[in-house]
Write a structure and sequence with these properties.
Blueprint (H helix, E strand, L loop, with lengths): L16 E5 L7 H13 L3 E4 L14 H13 L5 E4 L15 H6 L3 E4 L4 H11 L3 E3 L13 H12 L5 E3 L9 E4 L2 E10 H7 L12 E5 L5 H13 L2 H4 L2 E5 L15 H9 L6 E5 L10 E3 L2 E5 L4 E4 L7
Parallel strand pairs: 1-2, 1-3, 3-4, 4-5, 8-9, 9-10, 10-11
Antiparallel strand pairs: 5-12, 6-14, 7-11, 8-13, 13-14
Length: 316
């Protein structure tokens, strides 16, 4: 696939209208309502997609309806940005149904994580749009989002200039370098399971020369080992300029003795790559999470103290 020129969305401002969509699993109605109220309390208007109140098994409505929500939110002149309700499962079923031309022609802030990874990858590859790996309406805002998470979200989507150094929440252990070094490149990545699921498809992740960010939740260390090994066999980890791994929430708790820890697995699988590998940065399923703009340039290195976003993600 030929490289596509990056497109940056217009940054959000209080008073703007945020479209809320449910492209994966249905959200808890009470958490969804609380998340909407919270956004409104921050000064934003909210418009709900048609599938945010639907349930179809483990999906929030039929594939065609969920994809139509995404396409409509990008196309509508009344919507300034889009934040997903929650993850779960279902976004990979939509990739062939998205109107990438409309998305490219109407760039907007687009936010989510977990299962939303498939949308980040497909939209980024086919349109060049910078998207945001960050908190969601029911999963985070509806549960009482922390000051750290909101501050990082707001700085990423609503303030000018690059984010600069990315640090962990107060009182949390700082991220550590499993492998030292320095690298630069555009950010890509998301949920490890979803990234592995793209392999062998037209939406396979491109890691060449990029800083690959990986997050996971509730996966035992041996399963993380298996997925990292698959990425190694596919050459994806070798192609990356550097790697950042989140705190991997509730993964060590899934270990059954005898077992390695997640950190043991990372040191074993990534330690020989001869490129910087940073572990324990909070950007995934932890209660406190930073927001990462995917598609912008960053530096990763021991000499600069970790991950530093060097390029602005939005326009005026």
């Amino acid at each position: 696939m030929n490289p596509i020129s990056p497109i940056k969305p217009k940054r959000l401002c209080p008073g703007d209208t945020i479209g809320v969509i449910a492209p994966a699993s249905p959200g808890d109605p009470e958490l969804a309502a609380a998340g909407v109220r919270w956004l409104e309390e921050q000064g934003f208007k909210v418009q709900l997609g048609m599938t945010t109140a639907q349930t179809l098994g483990y999906l929030s409505g039929p594939d065609a309806a969920r994809a139509a929500d995404i396409n409509a939110m990008f196309a509508s002149p009344d919507i300034d940005g889009i934040v997903c309700l929650r993850g779960g499962y279902g976004t990979m079923r939509l990739l062939e149904l998205l109107d990438y031309s409309t998305i490219r022609d109407h760039p907007k802030v687009f936010v989510g994580y977990s299962d939303i990874t498939a949308l980040h990858l497909s939209i980024g590859q086919r349109t060049g749009l910078v998207t945001f790996h960050g908190p969601m309406v029911a999963s985070d805002m509806g549960r009482g989002i922390s000051a750290y998470s909101w501050d990082n979200f707001f700085r990423a989507v609503a303030t000018p200039g690059p984010l600069g150094p990315i640090s962990n929440p107060p009182l949390s252990p700082p991220p550590v370098f499993i492998v030292p070094g320095t690298a630069g490149g555009c950010l890509t990545g998301g949920n490890l399971s979803l990234i592995v699921a793209t392999l062998g498809t037209p939406y396979e992740i491109d890691t060449c020369g990029k800083i690959l960010c990986l997050e996971e939740v509730g996966e035992a260390p041996y399963r993380i080992d298996r997925m990292l090994t698959q990425l190694l066999l596919a050459g994806k980890l070798q192609d990356a300029a550097g790697i950042v791994v989140d705190a991997c929430a509730d993964c060590d708790s899934e270990a059954k003795p005898p077992s390695f820890t997640v950190e043991d697995v990372l040191r074993d699988r990534l330690g020989g790559l001869n490129k910087p590998v940073l572990y324990n940065l909070h950007f995934g399923h932890t209660a406190d999470k930073t927001t990462l703009p995917l598609g912008v340039r960053a530096m990763l290195g021991t000499g600069i103290g970790g991950l530093v976003i060097t390029e602005t993600a939005t326009t005026d």
